């Protein structure tokens, strides 16, 4: 049966359930490294928007919301170090199992702090300079998105970038076939659910908390919301 893509789905991803199978959850986190690299394509925009705000002399503090297995912040710290730029990252997730996974894999990475925290309550995590979220906004309800982005716009001293899924028939059908390679995990089914919870460009633009925000489309099936202060 074809999904209704005329509006955002309210379904929950399987991996977000607190009693989801832990073995499959960890396998999904393992697979996120290749999924992010091959399909998210957030590395280029993140470097393009963030690196001009970094300095070789003064440390910048980045807050990563819903960081999952932490493959992106680990990569970002390596790139900043190669460029001679000072960067510190706090990566948060609300699932203690995900936090435990990330600490086990990357807990010793210099410049990275991994915390269990509520991304909807940002004041206790301040001060920070830049906020990043990859495939995070679609997990939230519309009121939660508005509230979060208002907090981010108020607290992020240098700016922010959110990369998320563009909801479309093409994205759904394309991932339906590609996801067959991701077996014995939640990646395939949750990926399709996530696309149904994604956004159109106009929907994401309506959430923008500031007139200076930029909304951009990116292949394959991605949307970017960003602001540099």
Topology:
Elements: H1 22-40, H2 43-50, E1 60-65, H3 71-82, E2 87-93, H4 96-106, E3 112-116, E4 128-134, H5 142-155, E5 156-165, H6 169-178, H7 187-196, H8 201-207, E6 214-218, E7 222-228
Parallel strand pairs: 1-2, 1-4, 2-3, 4-5
Antiparallel strand pairs: 5-7, 6-7
Helix pairs in contact: 6-7
For the termini, the CA-CA separation is 45 Å
Instruction: Summarize the biggest pleated sheet.
Output: 7 strands, mixed
Spatial arrangement of strands, main beta sheet: 3-2-1-4-5-7-6
In helices, the fraction of residues equals 25-40%
So what's the overall shape?
A: globular
Question: What is CATH's topology name?
Answer: Rossmann fold
Spell out the helices and strands N to C: HHEHEHEEHEHHHEE
Helical/strand content category: alpha/beta
Give the amount of beta strand, in percent: 15-25%
Show unreliable segments: none
- Cα radius of gyration in angstroms: 17 Å
